[in-house]
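[09:14] KT: can someone run the structure on this one? pasting the chain below
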Amino acid sequence: MGSNLPKLTKASIAALLEARFLDGFKELKDLPNPFELHEMDRAADRIVRAIRHKERIAIVGDYDVDGVVSSALMEEFFELLDYPVDVVIPNRFVDGYGVSPKILDRIDADVVITVDNGITAIDAANICKERGIDLIITDHHTPSGMLPDAYAIVNPKKDACSFAYPDICGAQVAWFLIGALKQRLNLEIRMGRFLDLLALAIVADVMPLTSINRPLVRKGLEMLSSSNRPAFEVVRSYLGKQRFSAEDIGYGIAPRINSAGRMEDASIALKFLRAKTIDEASSGWITLDALNQMRRQEEMETTETAIAMANPDDPVIVVAREDWHEGVVGIVASRLVDRFKKPAIVLSVENGRAKGSGRSIGDVNLFVLLDRCKSFLTAFGGHKMAAGLSLDKEKIEAFRGAICKEASMLPPELFMPKENILGELPIGEIDWGLMEILARYEPYGEANSRPKFLIKNISVIDANIIGAEKNHMKLLLGSKNISLSAIQFGFKKMVSVGENIDVSGTLQVNEFNGRRTIQLLVDKIH
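[09:31] RB: done, structure tokens below
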């Protein structure tokens, strides 16, 4: 394994990590002016006019973490102004996605502002026009061809927008809108007060942790440790953590917040984030945790069925079934990608209509594939790695054939999963000096993945199975009087003491009983 990988030293590791930041380390002071976003001036001026004339304003969010955080930011901002607004998050099962004709039936407003949705809302925009409602769309999803006829559209991915940082999430667009309103209204609000919330959305929506996203998440993670928001006091207490990494958001916090919209209603998550007391936040967290357990169970059962139904020879796995829970199809698609190393689309069918999610792999652009097959679809949206779609049940087989045909014309190397091993690391290079270098380039996440190393021909000094379910392996590895403790969660195969192995993984600081040690988190034993 890895004969073509470079042999690493501390200096070469620092250089490789430095190269990920082509525009250098951005600081919060380097953030662009919100008005650099196309039509931000038009959006902000209209909202200011609405505030001054006491018009009715409604915010329409989305049911994932990004959409819930966007809604929480807007709600908090208007609360600081002491201005009443109606915040509506569609229910996935009843309302469908985003600002829709169905949602507009429930809204009585002069101005409707979308956050993290709206870029494909052609029908809703026309209804707003007919009803004399000014629709302001703020979104970050890739536009597909025609834009809605809205009062203003703020989206960094719009062709007309020359914003220097298009890879931002919906909550960031909402945050920039708040920044623009702050300027127009001459407010004393500190924009930094929102960064603990904002960091959740940037990480959960898998935005690249380079450029302007890095300082925002870095500061947000710092704030999570001391934030006096009841929601985050409760998170710290339940997770037993004082310091947070981007991975803690990705694996610990985001799935619970997401589970509300997936299993029941995203308003539960919004209430939790905006809780005013520890009691309210605590009961919200317990509900979210229970919904997350339900989600995991549902997802496990659906994944098993989906694997059995999949045709492993297809270049894109497409599976559909009547009784699947709509809230877990996206996660199941991710599981199928892991299993088959191919893009996957999972559809839940109800009343003759299929609705679902797709996930991609390597450099296969799922959004482009769907765009090429759009004649089979009633709706679709998303980006390169993840998308949502809907179509009539009778078109599923024809769609499967079409997308597989499109994918079969792509070069095979695009389907290669990204192993992302930085290089071969001699055990002698692993010390606190290396850990300091690694800490310098945090937070790790999308586009700045935590460095994965290959350690070759290392001897197993000790090996034990641990964990309540006996599914983790604790190792002591060594070479020439140097030893390294390691752990593999959910291990596949036991190793024997005395065996020499090649192992890849990431390095972390393990803190236990006040003692700090360096530990290898094993990804794979080769």
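[09:33] KT: thanks! The chain has three domains: 31-286, 310-415, 419-525.
[09:34] RB: yep, looked fine to me
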